[in-house]
Protein backbone atom coordinates (compact mmCIF):
# COMPACT_ATOMS: atom_id res chain seq x y z
CA UNK A 1 0.00 0.00 0.00
CA UNK A 2 1.97 2.95 -1.27
CA UNK A 3 1.59 6.30 -3.02
CA UNK A 4 5.06 6.11 -4.52
CA UNK A 5 5.18 7.99 -7.82
CA UNK A 6 1.69 9.42 -7.38
CA UNK A 7 1.20 13.16 -7.84
CA UNK A 8 -0.90 15.15 -5.38
CA UNK A 9 -2.15 18.73 -5.70
CA UNK A 10 -3.05 20.02 -2.23
CA UNK A 11 -4.51 23.44 -1.52
CA UNK A 12 -3.58 25.09 1.75
CA UNK A 13 -0.63 22.70 2.17
CA UNK A 14 1.84 25.12 3.72
CA UNK A 15 0.75 24.11 7.24
CA UNK A 16 -1.77 22.14 9.30
CA UNK A 17 -3.90 19.38 7.86
CA UNK A 18 -2.81 20.00 4.27
CA UNK A 19 0.86 19.71 5.18
CA UNK A 20 0.22 16.58 7.27
CA UNK A 21 -1.43 14.86 4.29
CA UNK A 22 1.45 15.98 2.08
CA UNK A 23 4.10 14.60 4.44
CA UNK A 24 2.38 11.22 4.74
CA UNK A 25 2.35 10.90 0.96
CA UNK A 26 5.95 12.09 0.77
CA UNK A 27 7.09 9.27 3.04
CA UNK A 28 5.89 6.91 0.29
CA UNK A 29 7.88 8.81 -2.33
CA UNK A 30 4.99 10.80 -3.80
CA UNK A 31 5.15 14.08 -5.71
CA UNK A 32 3.35 16.96 -4.00
CA UNK A 33 2.33 20.34 -5.36
CA UNK A 34 1.89 22.77 -2.47
CA UNK A 35 -0.75 25.25 -3.60
CA UNK A 36 -1.04 28.06 -1.06
CA UNK A 37 -0.72 31.82 -0.70
CA UNK A 38 1.96 31.95 1.99
CA UNK A 39 5.28 32.66 0.29
CA UNK A 40 6.67 34.83 3.11
CA UNK A 41 6.59 34.12 6.86
CA UNK A 42 3.35 35.11 8.55
CA UNK A 43 3.56 37.01 11.86
CA UNK A 44 1.34 34.53 13.74
CA UNK A 45 1.22 31.40 11.54
CA UNK A 46 4.11 29.01 11.00
CA UNK A 47 5.09 27.77 7.57
CA UNK A 48 5.35 28.89 3.96
CA UNK A 49 5.14 26.98 0.69
CA UNK A 50 8.95 26.85 0.73
CA UNK A 51 9.34 25.49 4.26
CA UNK A 52 6.64 22.94 3.43
CA UNK A 53 8.59 21.93 0.30
CA UNK A 54 11.72 21.39 2.40
CA UNK A 55 9.83 19.16 4.81
CA UNK A 56 8.28 17.15 1.98
CA UNK A 57 11.64 16.54 0.34
CA UNK A 58 13.24 15.57 3.66
CA UNK A 59 10.40 13.07 4.12
CA UNK A 60 11.26 11.42 0.79
CA UNK A 61 8.96 13.08 -1.71
CA UNK A 62 9.35 15.59 -4.50
CA UNK A 63 7.84 19.01 -3.92
CA UNK A 64 6.57 21.79 -6.15
CA UNK A 65 5.81 24.97 -4.18
CA UNK A 66 3.26 27.13 -5.99
CA UNK A 67 1.89 30.51 -4.98
CA UNK A 68 -1.84 30.04 -5.56
CA UNK A 69 -4.84 32.07 -4.48
CA UNK A 70 -7.75 29.68 -5.03
CA UNK A 71 -9.95 32.68 -5.87
CA UNK A 72 -7.86 33.36 -8.98
CA UNK A 73 -8.95 31.10 -11.85
CA UNK A 74 -5.92 31.75 -14.03
CA UNK A 75 -3.58 30.98 -11.13
CA UNK A 76 -5.47 27.78 -10.27
CA UNK A 77 -5.55 26.45 -13.82
CA UNK A 78 -1.92 27.38 -14.39
CA UNK A 79 -0.78 25.67 -11.20
CA UNK A 80 -2.67 22.46 -11.98
CA UNK A 81 -1.30 22.36 -15.53
CA UNK A 82 2.21 23.08 -14.24
CA UNK A 83 1.93 20.24 -11.72
CA UNK A 84 0.87 17.72 -14.37
CA UNK A 85 3.62 18.91 -16.73
CA UNK A 86 6.31 18.78 -14.03
CA UNK A 87 5.55 15.29 -12.76
CA UNK A 88 3.93 13.77 -15.84
CA UNK A 89 0.55 13.13 -14.25
CA UNK A 90 -1.99 14.26 -11.70
CA UNK A 91 -3.49 11.52 -9.55
CA UNK A 92 -4.97 13.14 -6.45
CA UNK A 93 -6.46 16.51 -5.56
CA UNK A 94 -7.04 17.61 -1.97
CA UNK A 95 -9.25 20.65 -1.44
CA UNK A 96 -8.13 21.72 2.01
CA UNK A 97 -7.91 25.53 1.74
CA UNK A 98 -10.60 27.15 3.84
CA UNK A 99 -11.57 30.44 5.46
CA UNK A 100 -13.52 30.72 8.71
CA UNK A 101 -15.44 33.29 10.71
CA UNK A 102 -17.50 32.00 13.61
CA UNK A 103 -19.82 34.98 13.79
CA UNK A 104 -23.61 35.36 13.75
CA UNK A 105 -25.24 37.04 10.78
CA UNK A 106 -25.41 40.48 12.38
CA UNK A 107 -21.69 40.41 13.15
CA UNK A 108 -20.46 38.95 9.86
CA UNK A 109 -18.79 41.52 7.64
CA UNK A 110 -19.81 40.98 4.03
CA UNK A 111 -16.19 41.03 2.90
CA UNK A 112 -15.52 38.12 5.22
CA UNK A 113 -18.68 36.38 4.02
CA UNK A 114 -17.50 36.76 0.42
CA UNK A 115 -14.01 35.51 1.33
CA UNK A 116 -15.38 32.34 2.92
CA UNK A 117 -17.56 31.55 -0.08
CA UNK A 118 -14.85 32.39 -2.60
CA UNK A 119 -12.28 30.15 -0.92
CA UNK A 120 -14.40 27.33 0.49
CA UNK A 121 -17.18 26.70 -2.01
CA UNK A 122 -16.03 28.48 -5.18
CA UNK A 123 -12.36 27.57 -4.72
CA UNK A 124 -13.18 23.90 -4.21
CA UNK A 125 -15.47 23.91 -7.25
CA UNK A 126 -12.85 25.62 -9.42
CA UNK A 127 -9.84 23.54 -8.39
CA UNK A 128 -11.82 20.36 -9.00
CA UNK A 129 -13.12 21.63 -12.34
CA UNK A 130 -9.68 22.34 -13.75
CA UNK A 131 -8.18 19.10 -12.43
CA UNK A 132 -10.68 16.78 -14.10
CA UNK A 133 -9.03 16.66 -17.54
CA UNK A 134 -5.78 15.53 -15.92
CA UNK A 135 -7.40 13.11 -13.46
CA UNK A 136 -9.19 11.35 -16.32
CA UNK A 137 -5.77 10.09 -17.44
CA UNK A 138 -4.77 8.72 -14.03
CA UNK A 139 -4.92 5.06 -13.03
CA UNK A 140 -6.79 5.56 -9.74
CA UNK A 141 -7.81 9.23 -9.47
CA UNK A 142 -9.20 10.79 -6.29
CA UNK A 143 -10.56 14.17 -5.23
CA UNK A 144 -10.83 14.67 -1.49
CA UNK A 145 -12.51 17.59 0.28
CA UNK A 146 -11.78 18.39 3.91
CA UNK A 147 -15.43 19.16 4.51
CA UNK A 148 -18.28 17.90 6.70
CA UNK A 149 -21.29 15.64 6.28
CA UNK A 150 -24.35 17.51 5.03
CA UNK A 151 -26.24 17.49 8.32
CA UNK A 152 -28.90 20.21 8.08
CA UNK A 153 -29.51 20.49 11.84
CA UNK A 154 -30.36 24.06 12.85
CA UNK A 155 -27.66 24.13 15.52
CA UNK A 156 -24.91 24.09 12.90
CA UNK A 157 -26.28 27.24 11.30
CA UNK A 158 -27.59 29.26 14.24
CA UNK A 159 -24.33 30.75 15.51
CA UNK A 160 -22.33 31.04 12.28
CA UNK A 161 -24.61 30.85 9.26
CA UNK A 162 -22.09 32.33 6.82
CA UNK A 163 -19.34 29.85 7.69
CA UNK A 164 -21.69 26.88 7.65
CA UNK A 165 -23.04 27.85 4.24
CA UNK A 166 -19.51 28.14 2.85
CA UNK A 167 -18.26 24.90 4.41
CA UNK A 168 -21.33 22.96 3.35
CA UNK A 169 -20.74 24.40 -0.11
CA UNK A 170 -17.59 22.30 -0.30
CA UNK A 171 -19.60 19.21 0.61
CA UNK A 172 -22.23 20.01 -1.99
CA UNK A 173 -19.45 19.90 -4.58
CA UNK A 174 -18.69 16.38 -3.31
CA UNK A 175 -22.33 15.36 -3.68
CA UNK A 176 -22.60 16.64 -7.24
CA UNK A 177 -19.17 15.71 -8.56
CA UNK A 178 -19.32 12.18 -7.19
CA UNK A 179 -22.29 11.53 -9.45
CA UNK A 180 -20.94 13.48 -12.38
CA UNK A 181 -17.53 11.79 -12.33
CA UNK A 182 -18.51 8.25 -11.39
CA UNK A 183 -18.77 7.19 -15.07
CA UNK A 184 -15.23 8.50 -15.55
CA UNK A 185 -13.89 6.46 -12.62
CA UNK A 186 -12.84 9.49 -10.57
CA UNK A 187 -13.58 9.19 -6.85
CA UNK A 188 -14.86 12.25 -4.98
CA UNK A 189 -15.14 12.05 -1.19
CA UNK A 190 -15.24 14.20 1.94
CA UNK A 191 -13.26 13.71 5.14
CA UNK A 192 -14.03 15.41 8.45
CA UNK A 193 -12.64 15.16 11.99
CA UNK A 194 -14.79 14.10 14.91
CA UNK A 195 -12.73 16.27 17.26
CA UNK A 196 -10.89 19.54 16.98
CA UNK A 197 -7.49 19.15 15.32
CA UNK A 198 -4.38 20.80 16.77
CA UNK A 199 -3.70 23.47 14.16
CA UNK A 200 -2.95 27.18 14.33
CA UNK A 201 -6.53 27.95 13.31
CA UNK A 202 -7.89 26.07 16.31
CA UNK A 203 -5.45 27.77 18.67
CA UNK A 204 -6.20 31.24 17.34
CA UNK A 205 -9.97 30.97 16.95
CA UNK A 206 -11.33 28.48 19.45
CA UNK A 207 -9.52 28.81 22.75
CA UNK A 208 -5.73 28.86 22.67
CA UNK A 209 -3.58 26.21 24.30
CA UNK A 210 -6.46 24.76 26.33
CA UNK A 211 -8.35 23.65 23.21
CA UNK A 212 -5.11 22.41 21.64
CA UNK A 213 -4.63 20.00 24.55
CA UNK A 214 -8.17 18.70 23.99
CA UNK A 215 -7.52 18.08 20.29
CA UNK A 216 -6.16 15.31 18.15
CA UNK A 217 -3.04 15.65 16.03
CA UNK A 218 -3.36 16.25 12.27
CA UNK A 219 -1.80 12.82 11.73
CA UNK A 220 -5.19 11.15 12.16
CA UNK A 221 -6.37 12.83 8.96
CA UNK A 222 -3.23 12.00 7.01
CA UNK A 223 -3.64 8.33 7.96
CA UNK A 224 -7.23 8.56 6.72
CA UNK A 225 -6.24 10.22 3.46
CA UNK A 226 -3.46 7.70 2.83
CA UNK A 227 -5.98 4.86 3.00
CA UNK A 228 -8.65 6.67 1.01
CA UNK A 229 -6.29 7.31 -1.89
CA UNK A 230 -5.60 3.60 -2.22
CA UNK A 231 -9.26 2.63 -2.45
CA UNK A 232 -10.46 1.74 -5.97
CA UNK A 233 -11.78 5.03 -7.31
CA UNK A 234 -14.54 3.44 -9.37
CA UNK A 235 -16.09 1.84 -6.28
CA UNK A 236 -15.27 4.24 -3.44
CA UNK A 237 -16.92 7.58 -4.09
CA UNK A 238 -19.58 9.95 -2.80
CA UNK A 239 -18.79 9.23 0.85
CA UNK A 240 -18.77 11.59 3.80
CA UNK A 241 -16.23 10.06 6.14
CA UNK A 242 -15.63 10.82 9.82
CA UNK A 243 -11.95 10.29 10.59
CA UNK A 244 -12.02 7.77 13.45
CA UNK A 245 -15.05 5.87 12.15
CA UNK A 246 -13.33 5.31 8.82
CA UNK A 247 -10.08 4.21 10.50
CA UNK A 248 -12.00 1.85 12.80
CA UNK A 249 -13.49 0.27 9.70
CA UNK A 250 -9.97 -0.23 8.40
CA UNK A 251 -8.92 -2.07 11.57
CA UNK A 252 -7.52 0.74 13.73
CA UNK A 253 -8.29 0.25 17.43
CA UNK A 254 -5.89 2.57 19.28
CA UNK A 255 -6.93 6.21 18.90
CA UNK A 256 -5.04 7.50 21.93
CA UNK A 257 -1.89 7.83 19.82
CA UNK A 258 -3.55 10.73 18.00
CA UNK A 259 -4.33 12.72 21.16
CA UNK A 260 -2.29 15.81 21.99
CA UNK A 261 -2.80 15.27 25.72
CA UNK A 262 -4.41 11.96 26.74
CA UNK A 263 -5.22 13.41 30.18
CA UNK A 264 -7.66 15.89 28.64
CA UNK A 265 -11.15 15.14 27.29
CA UNK A 266 -11.51 15.37 23.54
CA UNK A 267 -13.25 18.49 22.21
CA UNK A 268 -15.97 17.69 19.63
CA UNK A 269 -15.78 19.42 16.26
CA UNK A 270 -18.61 21.17 14.46
CA UNK A 271 -20.91 19.40 12.03
CA UNK A 272 -20.61 15.80 13.26
CA UNK A 273 -24.18 14.37 13.18
CA UNK A 274 -25.60 13.24 16.52
CA UNK A 275 -26.17 9.74 15.15
CA UNK A 276 -22.51 9.36 14.09
CA UNK A 277 -21.37 7.40 17.13
CA UNK A 278 -17.61 7.24 17.88
CA UNK A 279 -15.73 3.95 17.82
CA UNK A 280 -15.64 1.86 21.01
CA UNK A 281 -13.44 3.42 23.69
CA UNK A 282 -13.58 6.94 22.26
CA UNK A 283 -15.32 9.51 24.45
CA UNK A 284 -15.70 13.24 24.01
CA UNK A 285 -16.13 16.18 26.33
CA UNK A 286 -19.71 17.25 26.87
CA UNK A 287 -20.96 19.60 24.16
CA UNK A 288 -21.71 23.13 25.24
Any chance you could write out the topology, listing elements then pairs?
Elements: E1 7-11, H1 16-26, E2 31-36, H2 49-59, E3 62-67, H3 73-87, E4 92-95, H4 110-135, E5 142-146, H5 155-158, H6 161-181, E6 187-192, H7 200-206, H8 208-213, H9 219-228, E7 240-242, H10 243-249
Parallel strand pairs: 1-2, 1-4, 2-3, 4-5, 5-6, 6-7
Account of the 3D structure:
The protein starts with 6 loop residues before the first strand and ends in a 39-residue tail after the last helix. The protein has a seven-stranded parallel sheet, with helices on both faces. It is built from ten helices and seven strands. The chain is globular. Helix 2 (49-59) links the parallel strand 2 and strand 3 (62-67). The chain has 288 residues and is an alpha/beta fold. It is 41% helix and 12% strand.
Secondary structure: helix percent? 40-55%
Total count of helical runs of at least 4 residues: 10
| Spans where pLDDT lies below 50 across 5 or more residues | none
Task: Determine the mean pLDDT.
Answer: 95
Major sheet characteristics: 7 strands, parallel
Shape: globular
Terminal residue distance: 41 Å
Structural class: alpha/beta
**SSE pattern:** EHEHEHEHEHHEHHHEH
Widest beta sheet: strand line-up: 3-2-1-4-5-6-7
Beta-strand residue percentage: 5-15%
Radius of gyration: 18 Å
Please report the total strand number as a whole number. 7
Amino acid sequence: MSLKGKTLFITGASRGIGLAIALRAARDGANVAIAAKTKSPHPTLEGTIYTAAEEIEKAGGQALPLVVDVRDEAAVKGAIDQTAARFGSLDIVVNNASAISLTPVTQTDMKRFDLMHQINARGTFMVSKHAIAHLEKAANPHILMISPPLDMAEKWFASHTGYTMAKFGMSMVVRGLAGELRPKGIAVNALWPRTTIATAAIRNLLGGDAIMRMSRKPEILDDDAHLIFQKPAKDFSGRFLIDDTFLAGEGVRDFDTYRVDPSQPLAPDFFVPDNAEPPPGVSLAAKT
